[in-house]
Amino acid sequence: MRAIDIFRKHKDEVTRLWTESVFKTYPLETTGFLRTKQDPFGNPVGHMTKEAAAALYDAVIGESVDIEDTRKALDRFIKLRAVQKFTPSQGLGVFSLMKPLLRTHVLPELLIKKKLHDYLEAESRLDSLTLLAFDMYVKDREILAESRITEIRNQYAQLARWAQRLNAASPLAVEDQGAEAEMHSTEGQGSV
Amino acid sequence: MAKLPTPQALMSSRPAFPDKAWLDIKPEFAPGSYCYPAKKETMELLHMPNPHDWDPSAEDWNLPDNWEKILCDAFEERLEKHRSLKLFMDICVRCGACADKCHFFLGTNDPKNMPVLRAELLRSLYRRDHAMLGKLLGKRIGARSWDKEVVKELFYYAYQCTECRRCSLFCPYGIDTAEITAIVRELLHEVGLGIHWIMDPVKNCSFTGNHLGIQPHSFKEIVEMLADDCETVTGIRPKTPFNEKGHEILFITPSGDVFADPGIYTFMGYLLLFHELDLDYTFSTYASEGGNFGSFTTFNMAKKLNAKMYAEAERLGVKWILGGECGHMWRVINQYMGTYNGPAPDNMVTPVSPFTGTVFKNAASTKMVHIAEFTADLIQHDKLNLDPSRNDHIITTFHDSCNPARAMGLLDEPRYVLKAVCNNFVEMPENTIREQTFCCGAGSGLNTEEIMELRMRSGMPRGNALRYVQQKYGVNHMACVCAIDRATLPPLANYWAPGVTVSGLHELVANALVMKGESKRTMDLRQEDLPNVAEDDDAAQGEGQ
Fold first, then answer.
1. Residue B403 domain flag
2. Is the ipTM reported for this complex over the cut 0.85?
3. Residue B325's closest CA among B504, B453, B446?
4. Pairing of strands B320-323, B477-480
C-alpha cells in the first residue's frame, strides 16, 4: 500500500478532528451550531472551515493539487481568521493543530509500513502551507489598514475637491483660511 | 527553565469547559472592536445628560456618582412609555430562533451576539426590578444587578448591533431586537455614553443641516460641482434648485451622497433624472440630511432631526416629499415619523406622480415617496428612454438594504429598475436577500473606520454571499439603495470579493438614461470609459475608411 493511500484512508477522520479543533477556538456555547448547521450561507464560518480542512489535507498529503486552487480554498478561511478577535498566532496557529492529529492517526500505520520518510514530507508540506497562509494573512491585514485610509479619503472626496477649487480660484488668503477652517470643523466624521 | 508552550497550548484561547456562565464572561475592549467616544463638548452643545470625558478601554468610565439610580429610573420610564418594550422584555421564551440569524453572531461567534442573549443582557436587569419571579428568585431565574461592568457590557454589545432587524424576521413573537438595542443606547446616553461617529453628525445635522456641518452656501457649491461633472459626461448641465418656494416636490436624500465617493455618482444620477423629467422640485439646505443620525441615539433626538423634513416642506410650500436612496431614513419615515411629528403639514397632499398620474396611496400618511418607487413607476409607464447596453460591462447583483427591505417592504421596485437599466442581473442566494438580507455590517452609525476589523467580521455573511455569485456567475458589481451601504460595502467587497464595485441604483439609471439633447456618451458618471462605446467608434471609423 502506498503512503498516499494510507493518508487518503484517514482523510475524513483527520479533517473532521481538525475542523473541531478549529471550532474549539470559539466560545463553547457556539461550537454546537458551527458543527451541526450545514447551510453555507446560514453558517459561513462552519462552511469555510470545512472547505479549508479538505483543501489543506489534500495539499498536505501530496495529492496533485494546483497551488492556486489550494490558495483559493484557504483564502476565505484565512480572511476570516485575520479579522476575528485572535492574536496572529491564534489566527494562524490552527494550521499547527493538524500535526498532532496526523501523528496520532496516520503516523503509526505509516511507521508499520516503514514509510516515515513520506510522513516527514507531509509535515514539511504542512509547514509550507503555513508559510503560504502567513503571506495571505499579512496581505489581508494590509488590505484592512488600506481600507481605513481609503475610507477616510472617500468620505471627504467632494469636500477636498471643493476646497482645492476654492484655493485655485481665489488668491485671497482670507478665503483660503475660511476653507481650511471649514475643513477642520469636520474632522473625524464620515459619510452617512 | 520554563519550556516553550506547544502550538496547542498557544491556541487554547479557552478552557475545554468554561468556568463561568456565559453571562459572567465580560467582553475585552480590544482596539478595532469598539467605537471612539463622543466628545464632551459635542454632548454639551446638544444638551445630552451627564456629558463627560471617558475612554472605552479605560478601567473607569467616569460615570456620574448616582449612575445606578439614573439608569434604573430611565429604564422604568421607558418601560412605562413604550408598551412594546415591556412586551419584548416579558414575552421572549428564549426559543433561539433568532440565535444564528445575526450577522454579528455569524462573524464573531460570540454568544452574546445572539440576538436573544444580547437582549438578555437587558432582560436580566429587568427581571430584578420588574418581574415578580425575578424579585423572588433572583439569580436562579436569570435576574442580575447593575454594576459598572454591566454598563460596559451593554455598551459593547449595543454597538455590536446594527439594528438591521434580521433577527426579528425569524422571531415567532415578532420581538424587535433593534428596538431593544435602541433603548439600551438611549439608557447609556443618560449616563453620558455615546460614540463620536454618531454624535458629531447629530451635532452637525442639528446646527447646520448636513452631517459634516458644511454651511449652506458651500453645500450648494459642492452640489453645483456635481452638476458640472454631469455636464462633462452628458453635455447637459442639470439645474440645482435650492430653498426655492412654490415647487411641487421637496427632494431629501442623505448628505453623504453629496460628499462621499461613490455616493456622489448616485447624487449625479438624481440630478440628471430630474433634469430630464423637468421635475418641479427643490432641495433644502436645512433638511439636507435624510438619514436620521438621531435614531441611533435617543427617541427625542430622532424626533428633533426628523422634524426638519415637515418643517421645510411647510416653509417651502411643497405638495409632497420625494426621498432618495437611504436606509434608516426610510425606517424612521415609515415606522416613527407619524408618532414623532405627524400629521404632515396641511399644504401637503397624497403624492401623485406628475408624469404618470400614479397616486402613491402607500404614502398617503407620510406624503413621502421613495425614489425607487417613483422611478419604477416611470419605467412601468415607459416615460424614460433607456439604453441598458451602456451598462453591459457590468454583471450586477442587488444588495437589499436592511431598512428599506424590512421596514418598508421595498423589495421589487429596485429590482424592477435595475433590470430595466442593466442587462446582466444575478441574485445572491435566497437566504441572503429580500427580507432575509444580510446587513452590510456597519449600519446604525457603526460605519466608522476605527472598527474596520469588526465591520469585516459582521459584514462577512454579506461578503460571503457576494463572493459566491462573483465566483459562480462572474458578478462584478453590486447595486444598493442606502448611503451607508455605498460607504461601507466598497471596503467589504474589496476584502471578501475583490473586484466587485458598488453603486447606488440611480447611478446606473443615469448611465442608461438617454437624455434629450445629450452629447454622445463615451464615459459613465465616474468618468470612466464605456467599453462598448469605444468598440462602436472603432467599427464606425473602419466603415468610414
1. yes
2. yes
3. B504
4. unpaired
Are residue B373 and residue B508 in the same domain, yes or no? yes
Chain B segment 411-430 residues within 8 A of A by beta carbon are 429
Residues B187 and B61 placed together within one structural domain of the fold: yes
B528 phi/psi in degrees, rounded to 5: -105, 145
Q: Could you read off the pLDDT of B192-241 as tens digits, one per residue? A: 999 999 999 999 999 998 999 999 999 999 999 999 999 999 999 999 99
Residue A86 and residue A92: Cα distance in Å, rounded? 9
List, as one string, the DSSP characters of B80-92: HH-HHHHHHHHH-
The whole-angstrom separation of Cα B11 and Cα A184 is 45
> Both B186 and B220 in a single domain?
no
pLDDT for residue B470 is more than 50 = yes
Average pLDDT, chain B: 93
Identify any residues that bridge with B333 across adjacent strands, giving them in sequence order: none
DSSP H/E element including B399 = strand B396-399
* pLDDT digits 0-9 by tens, B141-161: 889 999 999 999 999 999 999
Q: What is the pLDDT of residues A62-88, one digit of tens each?
A: 898 888 999 999 999 999 999 998 999
Query: What's the rounded mean pLDDT across residues B492-511?
Result: 97
Please tell me if residue B31 touches chain A, with a CB cutoff of 8 Å: no
CA distance, residue B346 to nearest chain A CA (Å) = 30
More confident residue, A156 or A133: A133
How do residues B408-423 score in pLDDT, each as one tens digit? 999 999 999 999 999 9
Residue B523 lies in a domain: no
Alpha helices in chain A (DSSP H): 3-9, 11-23, 28-36, 44-61, 67-83, 88-92, 98-105, 107-112, 116-155, 157-169, 173-184
pLDDT at B544 over 70: no
Non-local CB neighbours of B480 within 8 Å, separated by 6+ positions: B325, B398, B399, B401, B440, B486, B489, B502, B503, B504, B505
By residue count, chain B amounts to 545
Q: Which residues contact B97 (CB under 8 A, 6 or more apart)?
A: B170, B171, B172
Residue A186 has what pLDDT? 47
| Cβ-Cβ contacts under 8 Å, B162 against chain A | none
Do B142 and B254 share a domain, yes or no? no
Helices (H), B383-502: 402, 408, 412-421, 452-458, 460-473, 483-496
B248-262: pLDDT as tens digits: 999 999 999 999 989
Q: Is residue B541 one of the residues assigned to a domain?
A: no
- Out of B18, B197, B496, closest to residue A190 by CB: B197
Residue ranges of alpha helices (H) inside B20-176 are 40-45, 67-81, 83-91, 103-108, 115-130, 132-137, 148-158, 166-170
B222 touches chain A (CB under 8 A): yes
